[in-house]
Amino acid sequence: MNRGINLEEALKLENAVFVDVRSPLEYKEDRIIKSINIPILDDKERKVVGTIYKKDGKESAVEKGLEFTSKKIKDLYLEFNSLSKSYKNIVVYCSRGGMRSGSVVNFFCNLGINMYQLRGGYKSYRNYVIDFLENIDENYKFIVLHGLTGVGKTDALKYLNKKGVKGLDLENIAKNCGSVFGHICFKDNPPSQKLFESLIFNYINNSKSKYIFIESESKRIGSVLIPNSIYNTMIEKGYHILLESSINSRVKRLVEQYISLNYKEDTVILDALEKLRKRLGNEKIDYLIEKLNSKEYAIIAKELIVNYYDPLYKYSIDKFAYNHIISCDKFEKAMAKLITIYERLERRELNK
User: What residues does the Rhodanese domain cover (predicted)?
Assistant: First the structure.
């Protein structure tokens, strides 16, 4: 029974779901976005099978794998049968399109469940993502939002997405806002580098627009790196817009972003401040810690803008020539200007 399918074909299937039968740790590191993990072997079982394979060879490893899997047949059937009632097509994949996914597809297809095996498995998907990102400039263009900390770049991306205009929020994907305070904004753990790239691929691949808004970033965001192709296209070929805002507006936005929305506890801010002693000096940090103890967050935000953020990022702001400079003090008005610019650029592409 040949139920193999290529990734491009699988992505075009209607009412389809991808099922990852690899172990939970493999799934956690990277996966097809929105796939469901139904592991044939758990992490411990996979490790045991792998050890036997290295020590005693393939046949013994297969026997051990079957021993583990045979105890789960009923539960696996119930899970796949339940999925078949919600999805017309089930695409199963493992690491390389081998025995794990192949045995599942053959067995459950014989029980009447409509399933496909992804040829090449996760490896084929990973290669597809790499190729897609490496050739990003052939199909997409970036409208790059620049601006000092707190001007509203991230808020702009969120607003644009709500209005149906694509805005790729790399900081949200990376779960880090940059700088020593970057991790404070998010509750979730950061993704692996591979998962970071998969999430970028998934977002862009689902875009019907030629132009995508993106925030100007340094190469590294927290624990991950922006892929070279994305970074170079953004910097060298982007349509650059500078957003500006008053100090008071920036302070208010920073307090909302770091304190009001996803706040953890003062010790997290304290730890970040301690890392700035060498840069800002003991006197300044001691003063900021006093304000932290009295919960005067606006004062801390203003001091950091003036003494840390602006000196840190001003050089990168000044090195670009901008197509537009827009004030964000009146946020809705600024967003209307961005949407107008986007619509004009999209029309220009259609008329080429």
Answer: 12-134
Question: Given this model, what pLDDT does residue 233 score?
Answer: 96
> Which of 94, 113, 130 corresponds to the end of one domain?
130
21 within 8 A of 38, measured Cβ to Cβ: yes
pLDDT tens per residue across span 214-237: 999 999 998 999 999 999 999 999
Residue with tokens 């050890």: 51
Q: Mean pLDDT throughout 238-250?
A: 97
Q: 95 and 183, same structural domain?
A: no
Same domain, yes or no: 100 and 152: no
Identify the CATH number of the domain in which residue 340 sits: 3.40.50
Q: Is the pLDDT of residue 39 over 60?
A: yes
Domain ranges, residue 251: 136-350
Q: Which long-range contacts (CB under 8 A, 24 or more apart) does 44-53 make?
A: none
> What DSSP assignment string belongs to 175-241?
T--SSTTGGGG-SSPPPPHHHHHHHHHHHHHT---SEEEEE---SEETTEE--HHHHHHHHHH-EEE
DSSP secondary structure code for residue 147 in this structure: -
283-339: pLDDT as tens digits:
999 999 999 999 899 999 999 999 999 998 888 898 999 999 999 999 999 999 999
DSSP sequence for 291-330? HHHTT-HHHHHHHHIIIIIHHHHHHHHHTS--SEEEE-SS
